[in-house]
Amino acid sequence: MPSTNLKTGSITFEAMKPGGRLAPATPKSPTGITGFDAMTGGGVPRGRTTLVIGGPGSGKTIFGLQFLAEGVKSGEPGIFVAFEEAADRIIANAEGFGWDLDQIGPREVFFLDAQPTPDVVQFGDFDLGGMIATLDGKATAMGASRIVIDALDIVLALLPDAAAKRREVYRLHEWLLTRGLTAMITAKAGADDTATVTPGPFGFMQFMVDCAVTLNHTVVLGVSQRDLRILKFRGSSFDENESPFLIGSTGIEVAVARTPGREAAEVTNERVSSGVKRLDTMLGGGYYRGASVLITGFPGTAKTTLSGAFAEAACLRGEKTMFVSIDSDGPEVVRNLSSVGIRLDRFVENGLLQMVSARTITGSAETFLVRIKTMAQLHQARCLVIDPISTLSKPGNGQTAHNVAERLIDWSKAESITLLCTSMLDEMANQQEGGSPLQISTLADTWIHLNYLVQAGERNRGMSIIKSRGTAHSNQVRELILSDDGVNLADIYAAGGEVLMGTMRWEKESAERVAKEVDEVARKLKMVRLDAEEAELHVRVKSIQVELEAKQVERALLIRTTKTREAELSGGRSRLRELRGADATKRIPASR
Amino acid sequence: MTGDSVFSFRLYVAGDGQNSARAIANLNALCQARLAGRHQIEIVDVFGHPDRALADRIVMTPTLIRLEPGPTLRVIGTLGASNDVAAALGLASADG
User: Fold this and answer.
1) What is the ipTM of this complex?
2) Which residue of A has its CA nearest to B20?
3) Of A114, A267, A391, A415, which is least surrounded by CB within 10 A?
């Protein structure tokens, strides 16, 4: 609205303020359904009608009940119109999910039994005026703001023609809007109606309402899969994808890929031991706390053993740990691991370690995730092992398994749980490193690959770290050795472009030892010889020196005698001359 | 059938719409033709008495309840085709 400032004559537009022109976001009423409120950004449109369409057993009634139970929590009384099931049975069902609607009392949630009696006789046209009048009175009396009309299709089926159905639906919708009730109408639909928006029996309802949700329940290769899709949501953005959901112990839980808390997840530099000393060294100190570790390998490459070593190390630190074993029973795993010196029994006894045999968890990958989450939360696990996670991708779960694995990693990160998953590589043919069936290798922080090396009639286990985020890690393949006293890593021999393991490594090692000894002896021998030569030389030096001295003495003697003689000679000559007296004594002798 | 028992009906209607008027007219015509004064009709407008509608669990209107003679019977709709309606309500046919 332009407003004129009289003093200056300028015109200001209030609406120009940032965000001023934006229509207020559609107000929403939370449904209390985990994930659904996140998908819609807050719930179903407040004061409007939401249509929930689904086949038999798809969870429509539970959807509605959860919506009402949430309303009660926030002080919004509600009405439930039961066309299909008797109210007392619905109340009993709700109690199964921990929503004590019976205890809440009729002031908060009122159930209207509206099932047509089996002996009802119908002649001619009718309308839903009776219900609307009843509900209107009741809604006023209790100040209801939420209403669920469950299985409206039951009563519509009694109406003679499409025009009458349409008329009654509009009448009901009109009333709901006038009352400003946040409504949820559920209706059954065949498989064709849910997937498409074609105007089937309830097609026009989808156009009429402000929000439409379809619930699907399918069985893929014997595994039950549920998913939910929001068809429309007037005046709001929403997550348009089919999202798997689960009916768990606390109601409907819709799987949303990213948990909002993810960003807030605590990141630490703390390392936790892998349970194998040399592996810790290779990883620069161990796994990061809260990291997700993936161990891939063929059957029998000691994936479980590495997992067990990790679990034992965690328990030794006094951390609560959960070991989910899918292939074998918990006690079996404990027994098998004790043969390689990993003793988990003591931790099972003192309650630090919880062994879960997941063979008992049947159903979809979604169910699996929720059960694991619940159990881990109950146990307050700090470390979690899932062996192997690849079971999730068994037939029937192909589509959701990756998503589930992704959310498992997300969740464990958010909870700062160190997660170790093993993954089976199914086909021996698929010898390539890299193909992990769930493609979670890209999500995992640390990826350790185990494989066999067949050489000289032996199969030996090799271990390499393919990746480890945020860690300088060794790039070398090591040999994994299982013995009575635990897991060890040995250096492998890489000679002439060939990697040696097992007995060949041992042979190579012993050959090297022998060669070393021979060398040693040869060296010693040479030393002795040199010593001898040196000694000999010393002796020779000594004798030469003595000889030299003798010569020097001889020479000195010779010089002295020569001088003496000369002196004697000259002395004798002068004396002779003197004696002769023939020449002057000063005369220089002519020659010698 | 019970030749001289008194019939007691309660008819729930929603407002004064077409369905209501039709149901009232049809019921009156039926009673007049077959019961000749041995009947009581109570007409209840659900909008005026939602509590009564609730007590009788009225969802669809018009709903006719035969209170007497027992057991109670319910018929939904505007009560069009008279012979069938009469049979359902246990009324003697016009001829017999």
Assistant:
1) 0.85
2) A126
3) A267
